[in-house]
Amino acid sequence: MKFIIYCLIFAIAVIFCSCNKEKLHVNVESAQTFQTSFGGTENDFGQAIKQTPDGGYIIAGYTYSFSSGDSDAYAVKISSDGQKEWEESYGQIGNNETFLDVVLTPEGDYIFVGHDWVNNFGVSSVYLVKVNKQENGTMEWQKTVVSNKGAIGNAIIKSNNDEGYIIVGTNFLAGIPTPPHLMIWEIDLNGDFVNKVSATSDVQNEGYDIISVDNGYVVVGGIWNSANPEKDIFLLKFNNNLDIEWTTSYGGDIEDDFISSLCALSDGSIILSGATKNYLEPLSDHEITVMKTNSTGAQDWVKILGDSYKGFGNGVFPTQEGGFVIAGVIADPDSNVYFGKFDAMGNGLAKSIGNMATEEAKSIIQTRDGGFAIVGYTKENFSVQKADVLVLKTDEEGNE
After folding, report:
1. Share of the chain residues as helix, strand and coil, in percent rounded to the nearest 5
2. In this structure, which long-range contacts are made by residues 353-359, counting pairs with CB atoms below 8 Å and at least 24 apart in sequence?
C-alpha cells in the first residue's frame, strides 16, 4: 500500500514539474522576427514605422506603383507577423505627394505628414492626412499648410498638452535672397492650424526631426553658417509654448555635417544620428556619425561608425536598457541595411542585415516584445531600378 502511495506521489510530482516547464517555455519567448516587402511594378519607398495597439505596424512612405500620375503618398498596415492587412495611396493628379512620418492618435487612428508638390506651380505644401484605423486605409480628412513659396513637413509628434500635434519641417519664403528656414507648426486634434514658429536667420536653416522632452521639445536640423558655405548641425530647444530657449550648432569647416534624427535617453541626454565628413578625415566620403549631448545641447562625445565605409545613420531610437539603436545604410561594399545597438556611452556592436541586396533603412523603433522594427526600401541590385518597401523585424540583438 505504501509503495502504491509513493508511486502516486511521484507521478503527481512529475506531472506538476512537466506542467511548470511547459508554462515557462510559453512565457519565455524571444522577440518575433520576419522580413517582408511591399510594392508594385514601379518604385515604392518606406519612410517611417510605428507599432499599433493591436501589435501590428503602420508604415508611411510614397509610391509610384499606385499613384495617380507622379508619386502619391503611401500607407501600409501590416500584422504583428508581417502580413499585409491593407495598403492605400493618397494624392491628386498632377501633384507629387509624400508621407515622411506618422503618429498615432489617442484613439489609435493615424495622422501622416509629408509634402504635396504642385507641379504646375512649383510650390510645396505640408500635407496632412488622417486615416481611420477601422476602415482599411479610408481617409477621414486631408489638410495642407501653405506658405508663400512652399513648405515641407518632415516629422510629427503629439503635443505635450495632448491637445494636438507638433510638426517640424522647412518653410520656403517668397523673395530673394530670403533663405529657407526651420519651421514648427502646431495643429489641433482635427488638423487645423493653431500656431507656427520659425527659426528665422540671415542664413539658411532647415528642420528634420523633433522629440518631446521635459517642459518642451528638442528639434534638429541643418544650418549654413555665414562664414562657411557647407551645412552644419542645428539643435534647438523650445518650451511648451514654442518659445526658443536655446540654439546651438556643430560641425567643421570643410564639408557638410548632416543629422537626420534624434532621441532622448532616460537621463535626459540627447542622441543625434546622421553622417559627417569632418570629424576624422575631412576629404573622405560621408560616414555614419552619432553624437551625444547633455540636456542643454553641450556636446559630450561624437563617434564615427561603420569601419570607414561610406554610410548614413537615418534613424535612432532609445532602448529599454538605457542605450540606443541606429538604422541606416552602409556601403560594405554594396548598400546594405546598417543596424547598431549601443549603450549610453556609444559602446556596442553593429552589422549589416537584410538580404544583402541594395537596401536602405529609413526608420527604426523598439517594439513591445523587446525587438526592433525597421522600414526602408530594397532593390535586387544597383542595375534594377524598381524599389519596394522593406520591413525588417528583428530580435533584441538585431537578428532576423
Report:
1. 5, 55, 40
2. 353/392, 353/394, 353/398, 353/400, 354/35, 354/378, 354/390, 354/392, 354/400, 355/35, 357/381, 358/334, 358/382, 358/384, 359/329, 359/335, 359/390
Torsional sign, CA 358, 364, 367, 371: positive
* Residue 380 CB neighbours (<10 A): 13
**Which residues fall within 8 angstroms of residue 21, CB to CB, at 6 or more apart?**
none
**Tell me: the pLDDT tens digits for 69-114?**
789 999 999 999 999 999 999 998 878 999 999 999 999 999 999 9
Distance CA 194, CA 164 (A): 9
Summarize pLDDT for 289-328 with one digit per residue, the tens: 999 999 999 999 999 887 767 889 999 999 999 999 999 9
Please report the domains of the chain, with CATH numbers, ordered by start residue.
39-146 (2.40.128)
Residues 156/165, Cβ–Cβ less than 8 Å: yes
pTM for this one?
0.88
CA atoms of 370 and 359, how far apart (whole Å): 24
Residue 17's alpha-carbon distances to 20, 22, 262, in angstroms, are 5, 9, 48
Distance CA 189, CA 103 (A): 12
CB environment 195-226: b (16+ within 10 A), e (fewer)? ebbbbeeeebbbbbbbbeeeebbbbbbbbbbe
Q: Residues 6 or more apart from 389 whose CB is under 8 A from it?
A: 37, 38, 39, 44, 45, 46, 59, 61, 74, 76, 375, 376, 377
Sheet strands side by side (includes 193-198): 150-158, 164-172, 181-188, 193-198
Query: Is 20 in a helix, a strand, or coil?
Result: helix
Q: Omega of the bond prior to 177 within 30 degrees of 0, cis?
A: yes
What the block records as the C-alpha cell of 67 is: 499613384
